[in-house]
Write a structure and sequence with these properties.
This protein is of the alpha/beta class and 330 residues long. The protein is globular and about 55 Å long. The protein is 35% helix and 16% strand. The protein has a nine-stranded mixed beta sheet, with helices on both faces. Helix 1 packs parallel to helix 12 and helix 4 crosses helix 5. It binds alpha-D-ribofuranose and calcium ion.
Amino acid sequence: MLMTTARAQPAADHHIIFDTDFALPPQDDGLALAFALNSPELDIVGITTVAGNYNVARANADVLRMLEIAKREDVKVYGGAKRPLAHEKDAFAASHYGKWWSDDPAPAPPGGFAKKTLEPTAAADFMVRTVMARPGQIEILAIGPLTNVATAIRRQPAFAQSVKRIIIMGGALASLPDGGGNITPNAEFNFWVDPEAARLVLRSGIPIVLSPLNVSMRTSFDENSFQALAASGTPIVKLIAAQMRPRYAGNPDFHPHMYDEVAAASLVDPTLVKTKRMIVDVDVTHGIDYGVSVGGAEAWPGAEGARTVDVQYDIDNARFMRLFVDRVKR
Ligand code: RIB
Ligand code: CA
């Protein structure tokens, strides 16, 4: 009798909820998902969407389509918060980057809307259910505004102490090099969209790794790396190349920074980045520093409830890009 043996899959090191203000590549959330889907160290237990780069309708449509293109319809998607906890649209928001405040229907993604649909459970409920069923085992990779995570913390008092760890792309710390903001002079986009949620999560007691703009500013997706990636003909790489090739062709100096991709890659290989322990908090007063993150080695007046987190501040960009390209092109 012919015996067949199933090839053993290596056990994943991280069981993650992928929480994202998703848009298809070249958006960084899309590139981070392409990386995560091809990384056997990461077991994506679910994807949760949130308004940020675009509204949540677009996040849902794009992520469902991406999973179809990648032939990963097995990964479940849970629709999340349509609006931040408190931040209202104003004239500044309406005229600057980010469509988090919009109620527009999602445009059709390349190839049309996916047949795959959302799960019936809302993102925050899925987070609570999943974390409480496996206390101490689930990590959250949070690469958009933190509205879903904050809602889960509020909904279930034992949630924060049951999350293993959260890796957050967010913030910009002026006390470290490259500490300027990207939406206001000192505020980073994800924290600025939902400052109240960011503050609540940072103060929640969940073990936190913060990947702020400071480390993103030290990355560069140069043309050599792009060409190495584009040589692969997988459906996802074809999509990425179709979107990004004109940008490189039109500008020899084009070398975008990487944001959410750093948070994802540092989960797979933490030696890519340097981190330091810092107290980090977010300003939620509605003045000129709304949404600004502040980090210090010691507590300062007004930040008494703030916690110490691991802050990424430097990266080996060459090694990071090699890992990124190697994974995404598979
Ligand atoms: O500031 C960069 C962050 O804002 C990234 O997560 C990007 O996708 C946007 O959400
Ligand atoms: Ca993002």
